[in-house]
C-alpha cells in the first residue's frame, strides 16, 4: 500500500512492546483497561462499513476486504523488532463513487475518568492538491444517545494536510448547555472565534458548530518546533497524543514519542506530574462533563472530501471528489500507523 521510506523509522523505540513495565515508584490515579497493540490491535475494534455520516467520498470497507486489500495490517521492523498496526485509504484503484477506506470503532466503551495514550508513528497525508482532500480523525463518540446529545470528543482531526498549513483542531460537540471557559493561559491553542458554546445547532445565526481549539501553528517542545499534524508530523517520527476526560474537563497533550514523561512510558500515567502545557483544555463550571458526555467508543477513520474537507478543497467539493476518484497514487501516504493505544480509567 505504501513504501516505507523514513530513515527515522529505523530509530523507532520499543515504547509499548513491554507489557511488563519495569517496577516503578510513580503513583497513578489510573488503571489500564485496554491495550491496542500488536498482535491484538484489531481484535479490539469493529470495522464500520455503512455510509459515511459526514458525506465523504469514501466507501468504508468491512474487515475481510480491509485485510485482503491491505487497508489494515502490520508493519514489522527488524532493527528495533517492532510490529505496528496501520489503517488507511486505498492507493491502487480508481473509485468513481468513493475511495475505499477504513473506519474503526472500539468494541469497548470508555467513561468519564478516562485517559487515552495514542502513540502515532505516521498520520495520513496526501501528495495531491490540498493534501488530496484528506480528513483523518481520532475521536470519541457516544453510542448512547442521538448525536450530539451523548457528546463527541475530537482528539486529532485535520483537513487537506499540506506542508504549509497543517495543524490539529481539537473539538467538542454536545447538546445544549455545555459552555467552556475561555482561559487561553491554561493551554496553548486558542478557542475558535472565542466560541465557548460546545452545543451543535444548525439553525440560524446563533448556531454553534461545537467548541474548538486549534493547536498553534508554531508549537514547540523544549524549544524545538514540533508539528501537531500533516507531513511534518511524519517527518519528525510521529508523536504521542494523550487525552484526559474527567468531571472537571477534557484536555489534550502532544508529547515527543521519543522523549515521553517517565510515568507515561512506564504505563503509570499521572497528568499532575507533567510540566508540558496541554494543547487544549476544555474546562469550567459552565459544562457538566459527566452529563454532556456519555460513555464513548474510540473511533479512528480516514475520510476523504465530505462536509469539511470537500468544502475547503481548492475548487470545492466536486473537484475534491473528482481528484479522489482518479488519483490513487496521491493516497500512498494516507494511513495511520500506531505504535499502540493504551486506555486507562480512574478507579
Ligand atoms: C522480537 O519480539 C518478539 C515479541 O516481543 C519476541 O518474542 C522475540 O524474541 C524478539 N526477537 C528478537 C530477535 O529480539
UniProtKB/TrEMBL annotation:
Keywords for this protein: Signal
Signal peptide: 1-21
Entry-linked InterPro entries: Beta-glucanase-like (IPR000757), ConA-like_dom_sf (IPR013320), Glycosyl_Hydrlase_16 (IPR050546)
Listed GO MF terms: hydrolase activity, hydrolyzing O-glycosyl compounds
UniProt cross-references to SUPFAM superfamilies, sorted A to Z: Concanavalin A-like lectins/glucanases
Superkingdom of origin organism: Eukaryota
Residues annotated as domain GH16: 23-340
GO biological process terms held by the UniProt record: glucan catabolic process
Keyword Transcription: no
Protein name per the record: GH16 domain-containing protein
